[in-house]
Amino acid sequence: MDIASAHEQFGIFRNLVRRCFTPRFSEEFRLSHRGSICPERAKCKSNLVYCTSYSFHAIVPILPVATDQLRINNEIRAHELRVIGADGKNMGVLTLAAALAAASVARLDLIEISSSTIPPIAKIMDYGKFEYERSKKEKVAKAKVKVSETKEVQIKVGTGDHDMELKAKKVAEWLAEGHRVRAELFLKGRYKGMSEEFLKERLERFLLRIPYAYKIAEPIARSPKGFAGVIERDLVAQAKREKVQSKNEI
Fold first, then answer.
1. Which of 42, 134, 227, 238 could make a disulfide contact with 185, Cβ separation 3.0–4.6 Å?
2. pLDDT tens-digit map of 39-86
3. CATH number of the structural domain spanning residue 79
4. Which of 145, 180, 207 is the last residue of a domain?
5. End of a domain among 46, 65, 84?
6. Residue 10 domain boundaries
7. What span, in angstroms and rounded, lies between the C-alpha atoms of 42 and 53?
8. pLDDT tens sequence across 216-231
9. Domain check: are 241 and 186 in the same one?
10. Torsion angles phi and psi, residue 100, rounded to 5
11. Residue 178 in contact with residue 233, Cβ under 8 Å?
């Protein structure tokens, strides 16, 4: 298929990356390197497209290249790169051809690790190893990010002191982890008719048992099941509390 018939069949390929193949290579090579970018900007037979100075033939791409995709080897578009060698040393600014040759000699891949700099930065290393190390770093980063959520604790008018202490310690753990806590006094039956002041005081007495500094995020108010309020940690007050405790222990 010549250039004219290709244009007629696929249409104008504006805003798509132009790709190339050469008939001198095998069919297997052309299929496996279908997404390769032309390494040099030299005029092809047609003045509508560009190719290398070799006997390459321009073809219309079926799919555009994703801009955020990691580029390796012949997928790299930049003509010059700042290259980091396999030993971690800076090899300076090299042409794409020279960088690819260096990677080929080392039997490794050329990976563009930063495309936002001028010139882009590329590293010579095994692509499989690079992906493995990158996935490990992503897992560590995700593990460090703690998702804050609102935990819930529920007490009743008849909850005993021992259970109160256990629940208060659990709330302290949640606060230390950075979570908000919704404390609720659950009312059932005849307890619903008790004095509102008494019921609020009952919930406040529970909050005072919490061995971690907190501040009121949402004041105690009526809820569908009784009375509830939301608290969150107070790091400044907690730091002062820990400082006083450390002085008392000396």
1. 227
2. 444 444 444 444 444 444 444 333 334 345 788 898 898 889 999 998
3. 3.10.20.80
4. 145
5. 65
6. 1-65
7. 6
8. 999 999 999 999 999 9
9. yes
10. -65, -35
11. yes
